[in-house]
Amino acid sequence: MICLIALVVFGVLAIFSAKHRPLAREALDCVLRRITFRPCVANLDQKLKGQTAGWLLEHAPWLAKPVYKNFEFISWVFTFLLFLSIAGSLWGFYNWWAYGNCNGPEQTGFCVFNAVAKGEGLNWGSLLGLKPALTRPEGKAGWLIGSPDAELTVIEFGCYSCPYTKQAEPVVKQLLEHYQGRVNVLFKVFPIPAHPYAKEMALAAEAAGMQGKWLEMHEKLFERQDFARLNGEKEIKAIAGSLGLDLERFERDFKSAQAFERVVATSAEGEKAGIYGTPTFFIGEKTVVGPKEFEEMRALIDGELGK
């Protein structure tokens, strides 16, 4: 099926060079005939087979004979790889439009499309209606970390079971230390259903907060995330015990309507804001999705403080 690959190659070249247009037409005719199980009239596949073998005879004689003999099979292999690469590219484009990263939701790795404008929260999926636009929440639900008199409040939506929220935690601490009370963080828990025990970990933080140890539980849940994701409530109770909480009360509060309602409140805010992955930060009107380096976050915060 070398004609299909030739059609792609010569079709692109024909855009820039008139001399390749006859070859592109031959390739198109060949493809149409081959998919209807008819031989190519122009014998383009035979031409390419001969030219390829001739080039190999000159540059790699040992390879010429097996390639010539198995040319049809090799053509099908390359055709399969072509379709595979097209499918991968389309999937990447979809993720780019829908999630702002070609690797998919909650992914922060390198994306060749670089769809998200740094710090601007630009998401092509939002523009195309595939995902709602991210909007800064107005609600006050959540837990404040840092000075209540800070000049700037950074809002963070995070999931205790999300590895990327955990990855962002050291940078958040570094920022709070760096700004010495000028910046605080309003943490809004947003459990991701796909992550194991995300809801239970969120409820545990609320239950600990009822005994005045929300921040301690918050930090421990990230510190022990791997174990909590594996062992669930067993690990959560062990963490509560290590923090010196009244375990009977913790058990009641963990199952209470109050804890549940607090988690529902921040989750509802997140859905209204259009959150599709954690962590998501709102710095003024700018949005950051996924863990970022300290310098990148500091630059955005400095920009807000300088206004």
UniProtKB/TrEMBL annotation:
Residues 130-306 form the Thioredoxin domain. Keywords: Disulfide bond, Membrane, Oxidoreductase, Redox-active center, Signal, Transmembrane, Transmembrane helix. The chain crosses the membrane at residues 73-94. InterPro entries: Thioredoxin-like_fold (IPR012336), Thioredoxin-like_sf (IPR036249), Thioredoxin_domain (IPR013766). PANTHER family: DISULFIDE BOND FORMATION PROTEIN D, GLUTATHIONE S-TRANSFERASE KAPPA. It holds the Pfam family Thioredoxin_4. GO terms for molecular function: oxidoreductase activity. SUPFAM superfamilies: Thioredoxin-like. This is Thioredoxin domain-containing protein. Belongs to the glutaredoxin family.
